[in-house]
Each structure stands twice: as C-alpha cells, then as structure tokens.
Design a protein that fits this description.
The protein is α+β, with helices and mostly antiparallel strands and 347 residues long. It has ten helices and 17 strands. 27% of the residues lie in helices and 24% in strands.
Length: 347
C-alpha cells in the first residue's frame, strides 16, 4: 500500500485482539527480524503493544485509524510518555524487547521485577546475545522509593546488565540515568570509637549545635573540622564522641561511614549531607556525594537535579538507607554521552 500524500509505502493497519494489536503481511516478519519490534505469533503475524504501534506509525509507515490514538489514550493515558521512552532508545537503533514478551521470545532469559523492557545494543542480535541493560521508565513527578531502586538494580547488576531509568518530562523529553548498588570504602586508618569518646570531657559545648575541642587534644583526621585553635565538632560527631545512647539516623550513618575507612566532610556546597574522601583531603578529590534517605529527593525531577550537579563536579551521587539494620548505598549516575537516551524531537 502506498501513502498518496508522501509517496512512501505503508504497512497495516493492525487489527485489535485481546492481547494487543496484530499486524499481518510480509512487513510483520521484517519488523521483528530487523528491529526486534513486537512478538511473532502464528501465521507470520506480529503482536504489537500500543506503544510499539505508535512508534511504528511515526517511524515505520504503519497506518493507524483516525480515532486510534484518541481511543487508546482513554484506556492507556500514559501511552504518549511511554512511546517517548521507547523512541528515545529505538530511534538511535537500539533493540528493545518489552518485559511481557520476554517469556515467549526468550524463555531462558530472566527479567528482574520492576523492569519495563530489555535493551540490546544496535549491533547485537536478540536471539544470539545477552541484553545490555534492563530498563524502567518513569514520569518526572513520580515518587522515588530508594530501597526498591536498590533491590531492582542489585538484581539487574547481578545478571550482568546495566540498570537504566528513563525519566520522561511534560514535553516528552527523556533523561537517562544508571542506578547501581554501591559499597563505598576508603583507605583511612581505623577509628577506635572507645578512645575518642574519652574526649567528651574536653569538649566546650555551650548553647551551640556542636562543640569545640582545643588543639592540645588530638583526634583522628576523619573527625572534626580543623581550625588554628583546635577542631570544630558537628552535631553528629558530637553524638559519637559523647557516646549518645540514641545512635539513630545520621549518627548511625556517620559511624558506618567511618567504619568504611572514609573521610566525611560537609557536602553543603553540593546540596548533600556529606562529601566522602577515600584518602586524606588534598591527596585526591572526594569521589562521592552522600545524602541520607530522609534528606534525599522525593521525586525524579529533584533526583535529576542532584545527580546532574554531582556529574558536573565529577562525583557520584549516593543515597543511604537502612535495610535490616544495615546501611545500604545506591548511586544515581548520568551515563556517558553515547548512553544518554534522550527524547526524539518532533517538528
């Protein structure tokens, strides 16, 4: 069939089924063989998800009925945004298999809970190569559950794949971030917490949030902000030195940081609680910016800003949260330019 307005050969339209939209004709097999679009079914037909139908309408000359989109949006109000995420990866040539098709197409392939799709690099064959990543897509205003992201990315990484999140904004722009569980550690000396608690009697506290320790008393480099006259001790450090019985929240997190042989310093200039060094200040830059869960972004728009700022100063943004009484760390990182799937601009 030829589109008289453009002179290009068209395919379709599809017919409706309970499982999706079915495309018949020689183009059906070609779409899957070349681009891994949809799922082949009996009689050389192809079953398409609505986002794949809309993508093929825009980029593969698939005809759709005049009222198709209006009707679909009633039952699937996220269709336009989901298609934007699909376009962001497919237009550059990546091969995308939606998660619900994997069990039929690749029965031996595991899909992590929470994944929307698997992605293969454009040069790879879906049937012959393992996927490069697992993908979820979200709207920019959606809330974030950091523990769930940690669990998802841990499972994805354990399978040897990248965990990619595509954030879709109101103008269908797409921003890509990588999620990964982290285990930050440094090379500083171990701290004897019992020994530093002996300095509690030497602290000058007063009616201030924190305390001052005169310079005739020595502390490990990881504790306190050095001054010509001594060291300034912030509230969390004070809780450690004073052996605060209520070692919850940030005090507990700081103990974990110090136990990892890291050197923490204020992350105020970067919008986080701490910046973390592996070695003494001055030897290397701090590779991480750390925000505890209760101060971390609550939605994806805020998270994008935090991670982009960290990327701009060549640091990795981390969120810390408690899981089964243990502190866990998850990173949100902006990928290299060749891995940034961004929204396709329609004119």
């Amino acid at each position: 069939m030829e589109d008289s307005s453009s002179g290009k050969k068209t395919i379709g339209p599809c017919r409706f089924s309970a499982d999706g939209w079915i495309l018949s004709g020689p183009a059906a097999q070609r779409l899957f063989d070349k681009s891994a679009i949809g799922r082949p079914i009996a009689n050389n037909e192809l079953l398409l998800h609505p986002s794949e139908v809309l993508f093929c309408s825009r980029h593969r000359h698939l005809l759709i009925e005049d009222d198709w989109l209006n009707s679909e949006l009633i039952s699937n109000p996220q269709l336009l945004h989901e298609t934007a995420a699909l376009e962001a990866m497919r237009v550059p040539g990546e091969k995308i298999v939606l998660a619900h098709n994997v069990k039929d197409l690749l029965p031996e392939t595991i899909v992590s809970k929470g994944s929307w799709a698997l992605r293969w690099n454009r040069s790879m064959k879906v049937n012959n190569n393992p996927p490069s990543s697992e993908v979820m897509w979200v709207r920019d205003f959606e809330p974030i559950k950091w523990d769930e992201l940690y669990n998802w990315s841990s499972e994805v990484n354990a399978l040897g794949r990248l965990a990619e999140v595509l954030i879709v904004d109101e103008e269908m722009g797409v921003t890509t971030y990588h999620i990964s569980p982290e285990n930050p550690s440094g090379a500083m000396e171990n701290i004897d917490f019992t020994k530093i608690s002996q300095h509690d009697k030497n602290l000058i506290k007063g009616n201030i949030k924190g305390a001052f320790l005169p310079n005739k008393f020595d502390l490990p480099e990881q504790i306190g902000t050095p001054l010509p006259e001594g060291s300034w001790i912030d509230v969390d450090e004070l809780g450690i030195i004073s052996n605060d019985s209520n070692k919850q929240g940030s005090i507990s997190l700081l103990i974990d940081i110090l136990s990892r042989k890291l050197l923490p310093r204020s992350g105020f200039k970067y919008g986080t609680r701490w910046r973390l060094y592996e070695v003494s200040i001055g030897e290397e830059h701090a590779p991480w910016l750390l925000q505890p869960e209760w101060l971390a972004p609550s939605d994806w728009a805020q998270a994008c800003l935090a991670a982009r700022l960290a990327n701009g100063v060549h640091k990795t943004w981390l969120c810390a949260f408690l899981k089964n009484k243990n502190w866990c760390y998850v990173s949100l990182q902006r990928p290299a330019a060749e891995g940034r799937w961004s929204g396709f601009r329609h004119k």
